[in-house]
Write a structure and sequence with these properties.
binds magnesium ion, alpha/beta, Rossmann fold, 12-stranded mixed sheet, globular, 2 domains, DHBP synthase, 17 strands, binds threonylcarbamoyladenylate
Length: 342
Amino acid sequence: MNTVVLDETQVDIAAAILKNGGVVGIPTETVYGLAADALNGAAVAKIFQAKGRPMDNPLIVHIADFADIERFRLAKDIPAAAKQLAKAFWPGPLTMILRRTDAVPPEVSAGLDTVAIRFPNHPVAQAVIRAADTPLAAPSANLSGSPSPTTARHVLNDMDGRIDAVLDGGASAVGVESTVITLATDVPRVLRPGGVTVEMLRAVLGQVDVDDAVLHRLADGATAASPGMKYKHYAPKANVILLHGSDSAYIEYVNAHAADEVCALCCDEDLLQLHVKTVSLGRRNDYLTHAQHLFDCLRRIDNHPAIRTVYARLPSTEGVGLAVYNRLIRAAGFEVIDLETI
Ligand code: TXA
Ligand code: MG
């Protein structure tokens, strides 16, 4: 099966494929998704096959209007907090976990009694959901374990021949996956940080918890609130090592370990001082740009098979920095070298 590349004028073709139970890569403002009709269990099963995704990892259902939740009977007992969050952040990079109904096929919710729902802020994503006239289940469109795709080219690199089509809507603006918040607990809890920050959520809801798995490795035998958190994720083929310390300590450490197989995942300000291969996330304190470039940087490093070690700075946990921190600490298998104590 060849994967067809569609442009933004071919939304109707993508919608027809989806209605017929096919799988299509679609652009969103966060990352590209691998979409299928969320109400068709057999179509959803094809997503897991294409990605090599474990069947116990549930999918996000994408809608194009808050009213779609009731129209397609996706969730029940919807709390007031859901409406408040939708008003503040939808369409946008926020996924809400709600109690599901029986209309949601078991393939989507992977046996949980909840469903994850998102209204993406991307005109092409919205157009394809509306044209297909059904909610779309879509995980990130990467092979399971690889960095998420932020361009149609990234999707093709992973999925060519495995899916029916990819719809090219340009590069994703946010660059990291949506914030996931569960409203199925007494206190709303962030399971995955993203473009809508914890600070922004607290400004609307007041108390919001952050799940331990956002910052830390899950203890052996612990159950993940979000099943995706337990899998190795976002990892390039090279070994990522995070360094914690001052700008000058970072530069000194990397230069002391210079070798052909070493690459620094750094900031623009470091470029002239580093004596190894470099890939820059952007200017030092511009966390939005770091998020936008992160996965493309990891994929660019993967294109150089000679690179075996990547030295990156431990990101800030402020604002969108927390999303970059969460992805990089997983890419690094939670290994951090503290430059102040060596
Ligand atoms: O930005 C995004 O969220 C992208 C775009 C395509 O919308 N999608 C995405 O999907 O990142 P995925 O499948 O790669 O990540 C979804 C995460 C996983 O960690 C999954 O375990 C969690 O959300 N999740 C989905 N349904 C859940 C549920 N009912 N309860 C807890 N976690 C859930
Ligand atoms: Mg993913």
